[in-house]
Sequence to fold (432 residues):
Amino acid sequence: MSITVIGAGLAGCEAAWQIALRGEAVTLYEMKPGKYSPAHSSRQFAELICSNSLKADRIDSAAGLLKEEMRRFGSLLMACADQCRVPAGGALAVDREKFSCMVTEKIREHPLITVKSREVTEIPDQGITIIATGPLTADALAEKIAALCGESLSFYDAAAPIVTAESLTMEDCFTASRYDKGGEDDYINCPMNKAEYEAFYEALVSAERAPVHDFDVADPKVYEGCMPIEVLAQRGKDTMRFGPMKPVGLTDPRTGRRPWAVVQLRKENREGTLYNLVGFQTNLKFGEQKRVFSMIPGLQHAEFMRYGVMHRNTFLNAPQVLRQDFSLKQNPNLFFAGQITGVEGYMESASSGILAGINAVNRKRGLPALVLPEETMMGALSGHVANSISKNFQPMGANFGVLPPLEEHIRDKKARYAALAQRSLRLLEQYV
Fold:
């Protein structure tokens, strides 16, 4: 049974490498240089589109822990990144051209990897396939994926910020569902009086927005259903109070009255360690999100695990269609890897490629799927992909909020993160 990987980005290269490392032949398809996406320009594989930084390299950081786990699986990209690093303080940054060239050379030179430079427009119906075509999947293949997955394929990433539960100032909030429907703790409510709301409104409408690429807004009609909160605010001072900040059906137990406005936070995971700001999808710059949203009562000291984003990003509603080994529920011979699965970030994409590649080999050999414990960063991210309970599934990057809490709570954040990292690496030993 043949193994095919479609897409030579970060996830596709990692998947092909892991397959070849295990002694299996693999065919890697890449449409460049015959065709480029709107964001790509280099002929090389594993092209870094935005920053040349792969984020923090300290093991007691979420990004650093993820990279260390990848190293222990023999990651090609981590080996190349370590050789191509440039000074960047505590971050791992690379010479992007040297990095892509090195990855390309390693892939092309491997005797078990056959590279074919042409666009794939059909999903193969024979053998085992990994689709790793990224957030700008070409239209022809995207249509085939949409036909296969139905409404489970999204073309726009409209995500609200996510904060940690333990960073909230709960004395300024209250837990309740609107009109007391549902469980008492379904939502954390952040009430505002009129003065607080008006100050928040002024800060929001004057905040600086992130630049938008022309291919991000090819069809602006899609934004009507996921309006950025700052755009909604510009339609009138009270617009938000009739939208995501409406106070109806809620009573502040501290005053016994309905607040002027309310921001609701909803659980993002089963453990209740992460909450998202309901209806707060946004295109503000990250620093502006921290400044403005910290004005919300209860969020004064909030720790943001993911900032809101809004741009073109082809991704699956993974919990509906993918297993935790990254295979399609309706077809165990078809795997997905990279940002299309609902992970966000360079190394997050590559790590999903590692697991998809290993599991493609296991599938061919009739072996059990490799599913890492959710106490590891790679296992937690694959768990988010397959098991998220969010009603509006959105991509997620590495963060300590996705890991189950420690048995013993550690107040000091740095010490707590170090303990979480040690636990992850200790558990990973039996799987590598």
About this structure: The two ends are 25 Å apart (CA to CA). Confidence is low (pLDDT under 50) at residues 217-225.
